Amino acid sequence: MQEPAITEKLIEAHGIKPDEYAEILRIMNREPTFTELGIFSAMWNEHCSYKSSKIHLKNLPTTGPQVICGPGENAGIVDIGDGQAVVFKMESHNHPSYIEPYQGAATGVGGILRDVFTMGARPIAAMNSLSFGVKDHHKTRQLVHGVVEGVGGYGNCFGVPTVGGEVRFDEAYNGNCLVNAFAAGLADTDKIFYSAASGVGRPVVYLGAKTGRDGVGGATMASAEFDESIEEKRPTVQVGDPFTEKRLMEATLELMQTGAVISIQDMGAAGLTCSAVEMGDKGKLGIRLDLEKVPQREENMTAYEMMLSESQERMLMVLDPSKETEAKAVFDKWDLDFAIVGETIDEDRFLIVHNGDVKADMPLSRLSSSAPEYDRPWEPTPEAEPLADVPQIDPIDGLKALLASPNYCSREWVYEQYDSQVMADTVRIPGFGAGVIRVDGTEKKLAFTSDVTPRYVKANPVEGGKQAVAEAFRNLCAVGAKPLATTDNLNFGNPEKPAIMGQFVGALQGIGAACSALDMPIVSGNVSLYNETDGQGILPTPTIGAVGLIAADEEPILGYARDGHVALVVGETTGHLGQSALLAEVFNRVEGDAPAVDLDAELAAGDFVRANRELIKCCTDLSDGGLALAAFEMAEASGVGVQLDSDETPALFGEDQARYLVACNFDQAEALMIAAGQAGVPIATVGRFSGDTVKMGGSEAALSELSSVYRESFAGHFA
Amino acid sequence: MKAAVIVFPGSNCDRDLKRAFEQAGLGVEMVWHKDTSLPKVDIVGIPGGFSFGDYLRCGAIAAQSPICREVVAHTERGGYAFGVCNGFQVLTETGILPGALLRNANLKYICRTVGLKVETTESVFTKGYGLGDEIGVPIAHHDGNYFADEATLDALEGENRVAFRYTDNPNGSARDIAGILSSNRRVLGMMPHPERAAESAHGNEDGARLFAHLTEVLSDA
């Protein structure tokens, strides 16, 4: 088949800028072929190359004694003792989910699961962070249903418990929803698999599902802004098959036991191209592929289509040739394709041959590690205007408004569509703080959380970035877990705008500072830029996924408040209302500065909670909605009323950081206050749990009434 | 005392069921769906999950697997069998148990702990409970809406073969049925997952009695 001629229009359609094309000409010393142009476009787009972000990502803390493998591989790896490791990462699937919500979200989950089991880890937990437009926007309801069903449809069938996540609504996401999927797996530290190829002349093996035309050009699409033509891009969204993924996982883990795997890489964005280049580049080898050997599900596929297809549930592996028969038997057992499609070669070359014709012949190393890098101009976000007076509000009215809002009502409607208990190791299901699972066959437990407050990040990227990490830290400490490490999913608008780039740079500065101070190094992550529609950017949304460990001899903090318990707040309350949930939901004002994050105070409060776990019956962090919302949520989860002494709006709804709400009996409260005094951590009694009402100062309502509002709002808005 | 747990491609609660059996004291052998014979066991467990992706119809393709001929023969010989969730769907698709599991009435997947009422203690599976006991057991399914014609439902009730009913029907099941027994009372199929409520770490041990009692009876046999 004749390949199209290279024209300016074709180059532009591939998202390649004129200066980048000039670089291509320099590298190739000739005009690229159509297939080569496609390969450059796949490797050099923002999604795969991190060309705008790399220079700033370098400054993040990524090391620590607990870190076995930091960013750069399929997922990060963290030591959890006893020869075991937790392997995790979070990744976005924003653009595909907006275009085709079910499949976009489903394949987002599939992609992140594959990243985890590619490294030899069995997935044991999933989370997802979802951001949608406002409920009245015409797309929102359809997106909520489609995305939630897609996440559930894939994860439930695959068989990984979804133990946490976030759902938020803001008009900034009207034209560009966010779907950030997190997965964690468990591996033995001596059986971890990496992507760097080694050895010359070794077979390159294609595993899993067949290649079709779905997803051709997906990564390039994901690196462009949206406009009214998005419907035309639907064919670039891949179609997921969780049943095949489940078999691929079982077969891959079984294959790894045979010793046949030299290196392995899943086919995600830019499919065969990206996986082959990664393996070659990391191993400093070349790769030759013979495309007629690629298992194909459609007829007459061209080299271009095969190299750019994003068909799901596929892997590429470098095989120990002496184990070929054994390896093939494993894939035969699971009825999956196993085909030798090429070999490693001893030169810097990416050679693509189709039916004897050379379709691409390019220097492999120039595609990945020396891809373009930009130091884009950026301007710091201006300091926020000081907050004008906030009127005092009846506390129950304020609370009810939050409970009725799509942003702060119960997410039951969402998480009940996800299997949260498959594998029968779930200790705490979603709904109240971090999810907790037991490490199969041990008494150790892992806690998972995903956090960010985009309003804060927009008002003050540095403090907002810190806050996302600090909140994750608190959610882990609140269940008694030692925070171990972090994955970041950085969703921003168009990086070519200095103001957006300024948000990115500021947020990374905050995230880096917090991860250092709280000893939660970043071990993996993903950057999603160009989240804009018709020039309107999303709220800067650097989602932080974090994992904590509860040792075998430690008790988690998973109890509930009981009648007669004292309510205490650990940490200092000053009543910061800027950018608060109350201000946004009740007064419709998005104003003021984000709360400042004192990282020393965070560390001290978190250490204090963990160290005094035997005195604490129930614990939650204070975040959006402040004390009022946290106290209600604790009371609601515990089935007991709560009476808070204060009726002051700032004290009840302020969002000061480094705070926890704790419930315990009177003697324990006394001991806790003494311990806090010794540790120099502020602590105060703020009320008690009893009866069947929620009372704040003189304002009161039945718990059951508030509970109905809280539980029924989501379905009321979206079902 | 030994149990077999059948593994289909797409089974994902096979390890969970194995652990629940083991914790109750049973030895467990995992049996691949392409196998053509069952090991010598006292009970066959058919686990939850999405056998063959739930494509075509939940449990329909699994029911055609080679091993299912052996499972049918085993139950026809009077052997014990226990199917959870997808396992229940497989049992109905093989005809070992009557009826079918339709899509949930709200058309959504539902994962939550539901109340079950123990409707009969006349089986090895339910003897550990008191008649009328209310227990909490998690469900996790898209197709758990039990359906059978009126005559079959009447017969199930007339023969005291309804093992569990939902106290607050989550999925539209006919007559709130959550689990049923075979006519010889040696096969139980149920949508809820007792293996997810079987240890203190689960925060709920209401399902543990089912496994514990099963082991007791089988060891006496």
Kindly list the characteristics that best describe this protein:
heterodimer, A: 7-stranded mixed beta sheet, 24 helices, 35% helix, 23% strand, globular, B: 221 residues, alpha/beta, Rossmann fold, 9-stranded mixed beta sheet, 23% helix
Q: What do these coordinates show?
A:
The complex is a heterodimer of chains A (719) and B (221). Chain A is α+β, with helices and mostly antiparallel strands. Helices cover 35% and strands 23% of the residues of chain A. Chain A contains 24 helices and 28 strands. In chain A, a hairpin with a 6-residue loop joins strand 15 and strand 16 (445-451). In chain A, helix 10 (242-257) runs antiparallel to helix 13. The longest helix of chain A has 20 residues, at 498-517. The two termini of chain A are 50 Å apart. Chain B is globular, with a radius of gyration of 16 Å. Classes of the chains: A alpha+beta (719), B alpha/beta (221). At the A-B interface, helix 8, helix 10 and strand 14 of A face helix 1 and strand 6 of B.
Strand content of chain A: 15-25%
- Major sheet summary line of chain B: 9 strands, mixed
Q: Please count the beta strands of chain A (DSSP E, at least 2 residues each).
A: 28
Unreliable spans of chain A are none
Q: What is shown here, in short?
A:
The complex is a heterodimer of chains A (719) and B (221). In chain A, α10 (242-257) runs antiparallel to α13 (324-333) and α17 runs parallel beside α20.
